[in-house]
Structures are given as structure tokens and as C-alpha cells.
Amino acid sequence: MSPAELARQVRLLEIATRHIVTDVFAGDYSSAFKGRGIEFADVREYQPGDDVRTIDWNVTARAGRPFIKRFSEERELTVMLAVDLSGSGGFGTGVRSKRELACEVAALLAFAAVRKGDRVGLLIFTDRVEMYVPPKKGARHTLRLIRELLAFEPTHLGTRLTAAADHLCRLLPRRSLVFVISDFLSDDLTPAMRKLAPRHDLVALDVGDPRDFKLVAAGLLDVKDPETGRTMVLDTSSRRVREEYAAIAKQASEERKQGFRRLGIDRLGLSTDKASVHELVEFFKMRERRRSR
């Protein structure tokens, strides 16, 4: 991709995503995700009905009458976008590939985060960590992240989620909001997520394509695994072949979903043939409803 073409793509993505963030879901993003916790604000005199557990005994002793501590939510977040750019991301039978969908979603989340004053970082991974950009604030930093995503050419094709998880555990000492954007075609999914889930607010954005789950009758097809290079011939005219393919894909998808549920990880499925913004808005609203219970 030439520098001029890259600049044009970045600008187009910036215009499209900023419009969506401003008009559609920035408020939902803000409500759906907490900051790191609560921080001390000030003290005030105790009033009947106040929680006695918040009494500041040091101030109370000095003043000779009870005072309580007041706290405010620490709104600022550290947001990490962990994006899978392995070989399978190049697949897509709709208007865009899975990689293009991942970049679009990452841009939406980055602009929503920076609009609320959060720090945003980027980790690009395959079967190893290919690039890490530490979290920072600001629109210029966000545009840099998007440029890196659009222009980056990974050196490896496989997927190993544990490599990304290990890296994030080392470099994010405080609890952060981590979006893992991937098709999760990895044998080490559960160990990797088990490392991250206790330490961070982890969200799995599962990008897919309709043909990941259903074949069309198109006769004999030479297919190639984009990560391993293995090839095979599929007779898609056979109903039995199509049904077996769909059953295997469905089982793998259900196992991933169950694995996320067991670990308490929120998951959102996204598809290359659908507008991602509507799914994200509904997902944010679900998080907000659960938070307010």
C-alpha cells in the first residue's frame, strides 16, 4: 500500500467512525465500562442514615464528632486493543474480509475511548506478538494506531493467543479494559483467556464470515488453510459434505462460546456481511443494564 493510499484509507475510516462515535454509541460506551474503581474525594460530617463503614476515624477523633469519607468513581480507563492479524483474517466473502472488519471495529473502539479521555493501546499478534504500542491519550495517537493496523504486514501466519496474553499480563500492571479482536481459531484459547480474565475486564470480539459456517454448492473446490498452508479438495456439490462442514463449524463455535461463559468473559459475535455498529450498540446496552442491577 502506497503512503498516499494509506493516508486516504485512514482518512476515510476516521470520517466514518468518528461520525458513528459522535452520533450513535459514545454514550453507550461510557456507560458500559467502568473505570479502575473508586478514589477518595473528601470528607463530610456524618448524617443519620450514612453507612457507618465509611466513617473516617482519624478525622472523627480530631474533630470530636463523626465524619465519613466520600468517594467518586475513577472514570479514566486504560483500553487495550489486541488484534489478531493471522492468515485467516484475510478471508472474506462479503463486502470486507475479517481483517478489515477487525480494523473497523478497533477504530470505532479507539475513537470512542479517546473521546472519553481514556488511554488506548494496540497489540497486534499472530502466533507471536508482532507489534505493541503503549496506551496513550489523544486523537493523534489514535490515528497512529489506525495507520499501524491498516498498513501492518505480519511476519507470521499462525495464531497463538497465549503469546498475546503473556505479553499483556507483563505490560499492563493495573486492571484494564482489554478487547481481543479475533476469529479465535486457536488451540490455546482457554489457557490464554484464563490468564487474562482474572486480571482485566476482558471482552472477546469474535469476527467471522458466513462461509465459516455454511458452504454453498459450487462443485469441486481447492481450499487452502491460510495459516498452515495445507490444501484439500472439497466436493461442495455433496449435501453430506456441506452438512458435515456446517456441523463441525457449529460445534467449534458453541465450544468457544461455552469456554467464554465458563471464564466469565463477555463475547460478541461480528460478521463480515453485517454492520458492526448495531451489534456494538446492543452489546454496550447489555453491559450497562447488567451493571445497573
- Number of structural domains: 2
CATH topology of the largest domain: Rossmann fold
Tally of alpha and pi helices: 8
Poorly predicted runs of 5 or more residues: none
Rg, alpha carbons = 23 Å
Describe the structure.
The protein has 293 residues and is of the alpha/beta class. It has helices at 3-32, 57-63, 98-115, 139-151, 161-171, 189-196, 239-262, 276-292; strands at residues 37-45, 67-74, 78-84, 119-125, 129-136, 177-182, 201-208, 220-224, 231-235, 266-271. It folds into 2 domains: 3-32 and 76-292, von Willebrand factor, type A domain (Rossmann fold, 3-Layer(aba) Sandwich), CATH 3.40.50; 38-74, no CATH class. The protein has 8 helices and 10 strands. A 6-stranded mixed beta sheet has the order 5-4-3-6-7-10, sandwiched between helices. Strands 1-2 form a two-stranded antiparallel ribbon. Strand 8 (220-224) and strand 9 (231-235) form a beta hairpin. The protein is elongated and about 85 Å long. The termini are far apart.
Task: Characterize this entry briefly.
This protein has two domains: 3-32 and 76-292, von Willebrand factor, type A domain (Rossmann fold), CATH 3.40.50; 38-74, no CATH class. It has eight helices and ten strands.
Q: How do the strands and helices of this protein lay out in sequence?
A:
Layout: H1 3-32, E1 37-45, H2 57-63, E2 67-74, E3 78-84, H3 98-115, E4 119-125, E5 129-136, H4 139-151, H5 161-171, E6 177-182, H6 189-196, E7 201-208, E8 220-224, E9 231-235, H7 239-262, E10 266-271, H8 276-292
Parallel strand pairs: 3-4, 3-6, 6-7, 7-10
Antiparallel strand pairs: 1-2, 4-5, 8-9
